[in-house]
Amino acid sequence: MRYVFIINPTAGKKDFSIQLSNNISDYFNKRGGHYRTYITQKPGDATALARKAASTSTRDDEVVIFSCGGEGTTFETLNGMIGYPHAVLGIIPFGTANDFIKYFGDEKAFMNIDSQVHGTPMPIDVIKADNLFALNQCSCGMDAMVADNVKKFGSFVTGILAYNISIVYTLFKKFGVDMKISIDGKPLDGVKFLFAVCANAPYYGGGYKSAPTAIPGDGKLEYSIIETVSRLKVLSLLGHYKKGTHIDLKGCKYGSCTTMELESDKPMPVNLDGEIFYKSKIKFEVIHKGTRLMVPSILAQKLDSELGFSQNAPLRFSPVVDREFINK
User: Fold this and answer.
1) How far apart are CA 177 and CA 169, in angstroms?
2) 119 and 144 share a domain?
3) Alpha carbon of residue 256 to chain centroid
4) Which of 26, 109, 166, 190 has its CA 20 to 30 A from that of 122?
5) pLDDT tens digits along 203-224
């Protein structure tokens, strides 16, 4: 098995790329093994590097591609390697939020190179959003507007503080969304919503538990649709949203689905794992066992006990149809 480490020097609060590269080199020089490290220079590099590594993988020469950075780095890496059945996604979290791996409960285990190299490749679901793929959560509405507005403050604050400032900023804008929503092909009539989330795992936005029952491997997506409320009620609502108790509120529609479709008269910001795209129409669709994630073995037991996963379980994609499916 080969190991590729794609390192984003701009992720997190400081540049860790040189230190991490040195730690990786020291590890493999002592223990042996085939590895390569790359440091990204610009947006899109992680996708190109992941695709190059994944496209050369075979049944007898599998590759683990580690995304070393934040959600944006993982999003790029996933979209480069998705559909190649002999490539495994790894995550070494150096972002400010690292929301997806909160599901596993032990972020430090993902930071340990030895635990990762000797981890268990687990088949997990992904979200197909038109011709892109997300690992964690997709959404539209106020939360996507908040994520879009964060960049306005990124030059002087970072991380959760920037996100909280963006919430206040967005509150003074028009944040109700007029979009048609369909769940598994059935329209929801007469709903003007604050935001709509389609989730593969429980957390996003720096720890908001938008989908408390989501499991990234059960073949389902959890949706949260919050009806529009007054500005005065938003802060109280966000308190529930942070804890995951919003699903019991009257104005929340919560459940499981395999698809969610959104459509509006004009382009709206859509969040795909923290990356913002403007769309007037989009479909979120679960791809069951769409890729494999290298999980530290002690944490892999959590998925195995909940879902009965096996590291040898087949993936959704095949070497014959995978790229055709992705490009639809």
Assistant:
1) 17
2) no
3) 18
4) 26
5) 998 889 999 999 998 999 999 9
